Amino acid sequence: MLTLSSKIEFVKFLKEKFLGKHLKCIEVLCVIECTMDFGLVADIDVSDDKVSVWGNDSTVFWIKLDDIINVDYTPRQEDVCLEIEAKNEVKVLFYIDE
Length: 98
Known about the structure:
Blueprint lengths: L3 H15 L3 E8 L4 E14 L2 E6 L4 E5 L3 E5 L7 E7 L3 E7 L2
Antiparallel strand pairs: 1-2, 1-7, 2-3, 3-4, 5-6, 6-7
């Protein structure tokens, strides 16, 4: 679980890195894998200890901050700009068009 300062750093990173940018996709790896084509990030908000990333077309990805185990801001995988490890062996990969 992230500390309060780590949560603040995570939300700050999301806003600086993604707000107004075009997310190529978000890939969720767990028991069932899925890839979500995302598009332009219109808003990022925090409410009830949950961070939401909103797309221009009302697409939304959200995750509870308390479920996050680790955040890798410099992942080694090609084209991945952020990697999140969460409870229940969930991994989330963010791809951005630069």
